[in-house]
Amino acid sequence: MARYNINYYIDNKNYIFIDINWHHNRVRCSIGIKLDDKNNWDLAKKRFKSSSKFAFQRNKRLNEISNTVSEFFENRLMKIKSIEKSEIVELVGRITGRIKEPEAKQFLEHFQDLISKSEAEKIIQSGTIKCYQSTLNHLKNFEQNKKCKLDFNIDWEEFYINFRQYLNNKGMANNSAGKHFKNVKKFLNYSLKKGIHSNSSFITAIKVEKRDPLKLALKESEILMIYRLENLPPKLEVVKDMFVLQCQIGARVSDYFSFKPENIDLNSKVLSYTTQKTKRFVKVPLSNLCLTILSKYPILPRLNKNSYNNGIKIICDKAGINTNVEVIKFIGNQTIREFKSKSSLISSHTARRTLVSCLSEKGVSPEHGMQITGHTDYKSYKRYICTSQDEAVESVREVLNSTYLLAG
After folding, report:
1. Disulfide check for 384: which of 47, 81, 284, 356 has CB 3.0–4.6 Å away?
2. Distance between CA atoms of 402 and 163, rounded to whole angstroms?
């Protein structure tokens, strides 16, 4: 006994309807075709008579519709899944064009979906969300600039060359461009795993260029120069204290301005918190300098990140930390060298490098240092150690002079 039955019939206005029966269910839908004359319809075969005009083309279309419905039933019944009437009505509507197929999402729409999903589920930090959004904005502008449409099946090698050139033409250094390529690759990997596309050529085609950026850390003497600044405006006084404290704690700014009084135990002289980025619980000993600063603030001030970074540059300049530093940028195949005041290059993240560099200089083991900073691997921790060539020369000279007896 047939599990389903498909037929056509004519209503009293000469419209053709498809009639589908299965498991005591029945659906009748117009397919949008009308007979010119009822005499052109073969009641036995349920098709146009071969003698009627365009009979071959019309019967071919009827067969296409019934075959598509039949394939749907075979697939579903094979999986022993129930079939709802509404599904059949929608299926016939799509086949006949009476219900429009939803437009497939475009490449950039899928990218926006990933950002929205990540933001809603809070699976990545807000700073990373902003970085993804920045990449998406650049991709949108790239489409407009090149008068093209990105999709998953493009030549990713050609995209890499053109998008890199576009970013470089905007004055973006290769390192910064590399962050956007990294985000594009993350998105393409995510969508590949989700089955949104199957084009894996991007894996080798898109390269993430990353050169070691200029790394700056402050010396102990420079921190003291900042701390001893006097007669500052109230806002800069707060920035000064918060920056010196951050240099002693080494927390990321995202964690730093999230601290609450319960994170600080003045009796045991310890700050404890769970890092937002690595979700690692850390305990930081509070030095006497930290305790002195904390005594001024029962509740740590929460500063705007941009205002904080601008304030740091001002206080470093006032403290005389303004030697010229050579900054090298790579834009495309160009190497651009310029000198900038050290104070203009210092930011909140310098505080983290300052602590790691200080711990390394004082002989604190990486294992202990990582317990304080929340780093999860030595490779990441090592990137925060800043040692100048002059310091390296003097350090090695001292070791050599104390180790070998030089012949006279």
Report:
1. 356
2. 55
Q: Are 145 and 162 in contact (CB under 8 A)?
A: no
Nearest to 66 by CA among 26, 17, 108: 17
- For residues 235-242, average pLDDT: 96
Token digits of residue 202: 């991007």
The candidate with the shortest Cα–Cα distance to 177, out of 347, 329, 338, is 329
- Strand order, beta sheet including 264-265: 264-265, 270-274, 281-285
Tokens found for residue 184: 């594009």
3-state secondary structure of 357: helix
Give pLDDT, residue 408. Answer: 43
d(CA 173, CA 202): 22
Residues 349 and 255 sit within 8 Å (Cβ to Cβ)? no
Q: Is the pTM of this model over 0.90?
A: no
Instruction: For residue 404, name the pLDDT band (cuts at 50, 70, 90).
Output: low
Residue 20 backbone phi and psi in degrees, to 5:
-125, 125
Tens of pLDDT, residues 156-167: 999 999 999 999
The CA distance from 296 to 252, in Å, is 22
Residue 307 CA to residue 303 CA, distance in Å, equals 7
